[in-house]
Design a protein that fits this description.
This protein is of the alpha+beta class and 298 residues long. The chain has five helices and 20 strands. Bound molecules: zinc ion.
Amino acid sequence: MKKIIYMLVLVITSCSTLKKESPLSQQEVESKSLKFPKALVSSINNGAVKKVQLIYPFQKIKAKLFCAGHEVALGSPKDGVANVYISSSRHKETGSFWCEYRFTINKIEKKVAVAKFNIIDSNYPLRTLTVAKKYAKLSDQAIERWKKETAHMDLVYAAAITDRALFTKPFVKPLNSKITAVYGSKRVFNDMKHSWHSGVDFRARPGTKIPAANRGRVVLARDHFFTGKTVIIDHGMGIMTMYCHLSEFKVGEGDIVPQRAIIALSGNTGRSSGPHLHWGVRVNDHWINGFSLLSEGI
Ligand SMILES: [Zn+2]
């Protein structure tokens, strides 16, 4: 009898012990085993892109990556490693910025720094331009149109493919012709409107065939006030390329195009001071110098 009572006490005690400590959630178990390396320290030119490998120690938890407050496409990290394209703003010429993982455990948001980038000033030049009056001083009608187009573009950018790459080869420049305007220059239009050049201009006779810089999905093929007939391709990983002032579309919105597929013919539509191709490259919220993407490979 004494033995039975003793056993009973033991069972009750162990039961109560179990009750006190509720089992850890999967997230908690994972958070205890997460190992973060020392933050990567690197450098980047303003208005450029850099491909880096970051340790991604998460499995069940879904973490997001933010650099200088902008979300960066993580793709599908494999074997604890994420290959990401870090872009830097054209307008931040000095200093540094941090990249951090943001994730939630038990409804508490956590942040862990993974990389720091020191900015190297690209020293972009100043340029003065003369354009037709209707583009220097906009009518109310033009402003209305431009606002609508901008709102639509914002939706296109917000829907960027971030969980995968649609391309398997390095990016190529669309033309081999002379560059008539470099990326990044500050611009003064007719001595009044200040702006900056967010892409690269290639010399192109009207009707020149324009190839896609890489495989991707056509997410815009429309005639816009400033950029004229415009094509935007979403390549995934937060990367988009834009082709402006075209004369004729060869693709439509929704089309998947292989690298070097002819997407349009060049022209002189929109705000353009002569026939040329404006090539824009956007990586995670920043218009960057397309040539920096070519040199980064995949
Ligand atoms: Zn341009």
